[in-house]
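Changelog note: in this version the structure field was regenerated for every chain. One regenerated record is shown below for reference.
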Amino acid sequence: MNRRSLAALIILNTLLIVAIVMASFTAQPTVAQSFGSDGENYTMLSGPIQGRSQNDGIYIIDVQKGNVIAAYFDGSSKKFVVIKGTNVPADLRKEETRR
């Protein structure tokens, strides 16, 4: 192995280590997953719930209708608890009429 290839490997390894360190310290607060069939399209997000530091929640969105449900899993009762559901387009129309 000559000096040039050794230097290239050292630089490459250094860049890979920096990339791994940066990726491990970068927080990703939400993760999304889409699912559905027969013309239905849903997106599910996970993330923190305001006021509940011990539980992360899931947010299920019906993309076509604009319905959103926020829920979390209660470990003691082993059930999902729905916090709130709403229809975003209807809420936006209500807000527009208030102005």
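Spot check on this record: The first helix runs from residue 3 to 25. The helical segments are 3-25, 88-98.
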